[in-house]
Amino acid sequence: AQSVAQPEDQVNVAEGNPLTVKCTYSVSGNPYLFWYVQYPNRGLQFLLKYITGDNLVKGSYGFEAEFNKSQTSFHLKKPSALVSDSALYFCAVRDIYNAGNNRKLIWGLGTSLAVNP
Amino acid sequence: EAGVVQSPRYKIIEKKQPVAFWCNPISGHNTLYWYRQNLGQGPELLIRYENEEAVDDSQLPKDRFSAERLKGVDSTLKIQPAELGDSAVYLCASSLDFGQPRGHNEQFFGPGTRLTVL
Predict the structure, then answer these.
(1) Residue B100: predicted pLDDT
(2) Contact, A81 vs A16, CB < 8 A?
(3) Average pLDDT over every residue of B71-89
(4) I need a labelling partner for A54 at 20 to 30 A (CA). Which of A101, B75, B76, B84 fits?
(5) A62-93 burial, b for 16+ CB within 10 Å, e for fewer?
(6) Cβ atoms within 10 A of the Cβ of A59, count?
(7) Cβ neighbour number for residue A113 with a 10 Å cutoff
(8) What is the model's pLDDT at position B99?
């Protein structure tokens, strides 16, 4: 069965420090991996995705994520956090070779990031 | 380019009343999704359309929820009758899915409709 885990409900970092939001996944085949961000009272926005190729993926707002197949992880990172990065972050995974209903995107429960000035 | 449009943004109703949500996806996007999101949780897929066909409605409570996407463009999600537990944000998303394997394109979300059932 497909699943995704975000082990931290909340992450707190100081502005200017590097940030990491963790995500691990479980699929039977190869994954498509996504990160989305949800700012307060706004809809979800796409940040970045891993489909194939380079394990380090760069996305919007200076975020990047590294696909690690051996550790089944796709952690979101940013070298220097901004207060405006404070939001709810969701990791999502899809097994690319499953068809029909199994092709749905599986969402993590979200990690609340708080960047303190 | 216009994003995903949803209306209304907010809706307050009494239990047992009907309610409907409307979504207009990004032009040209063939796949449309309806999600329900409770506070502090991730989105829960209710139904997914590919063009006008509902290809995944396994999580849709069919006794009270219904949806349609008649011409493969905009869509309506209805609840009748609403229950207290239906209070949530209802999100619509769209994507352009093509090729094999599919599902590699990101989803674009609307702002959501916040439903409060009293």
Answers:
(1) 57
(2) yes
(3) 95
(4) A101
(5) ebbbbbeeeebbbbbebeebeeebbbbbbbbb
(6) 17
(7) 22
(8) 62
Residues of B contacting chain A (CB within 8 angstroms): 4, 40-45, 48, 55-56, 58, 91, 93, 101-104, 106-112
- Write the CA distances from B75 to A109, B89, B90, B92, B109, integer angstroms: 27, 16, 13, 9, 14
Q: CB–CB of B84/B36 below 8 Å?
A: no
Query: Is pLDDT at B1 greater than 70 in this prediction?
Result: no
In chain A, the largest separation of any two C-alpha atoms, in whole Å, equals 46
What 3-state class would DSSP assign to A40? coil
pLDDT in tens, A6-25: 999 999 999 999 999 999 99
Tokens for B109? 């979300």
Question: Is the Cβ–Cβ distance between A6 and A109 less than 8 Å?
Answer: yes
- Three-class SS state of A99: coil
Residue A10 CB-density burial (10 A; 0-12 exposed, 13-18 middle, 19+ buried): exposed
